[in-house]
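Following up on my earlier thread - several people asked me to post the actual chain instead of describing it. Fair enough. Here it is, all 189 residues.
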Amino acid sequence: MEHEVEIEHHHTPINRRIGILIALMAAALAFTEMAANNAATDVVRETVEATDTWAFFQAKSIRAAMFRADARALQLETTGKPESDPAQIAKTVAEWESTAAREDSEPSTGEGRKELAVRAQAIEKHRDERNAAKENYELASGALELGILLASSAIVTGLLPLAFIGGAFGAIGAVFGVLGWFAPHLVGG
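Reply from S.P.:
Thanks for posting it. Predicted structure:
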């Protein structure tokens, strides 16, 4: 008989509502954890992508500088030498200067230094937004975990204020989760 009374006590309408609140917070927690993991993966991937793009930018810079230096050296070495062919030298210098200019900007392929810098900066900006979102999702997860803990404690102890405090933490967690999605820089990053 005691066992039946105890079971009925745990399934009161208030405890059912608290259980539903816990289930909702657990669902939101699953979402924020998944979103935080996805954002963390994006941050790593985009960091590598930005680094690769900047390395390509640097290689283009070195290559352009070498072509310009070689063109200048060829001009200086052959100036005033009777055995040099001025037309051939001018043609070679023009080709090297043209190649150096393509290294600086090549809109047709998007692989000039200017285009690479714009691409790398865009990748970094998106990476920073994903990092800020990740921070919001982590704050949301922490608040939701506290909310679940407090609401669960309310069922065990029968202290209804713990359920309200847990619900408040759950609401705060939901707000951080929404901010991570729509306005990541408002709080995170």
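The helical segments are 2-10, 13-78, 86-104, 113-157, 160-182. That should answer part of your original question.
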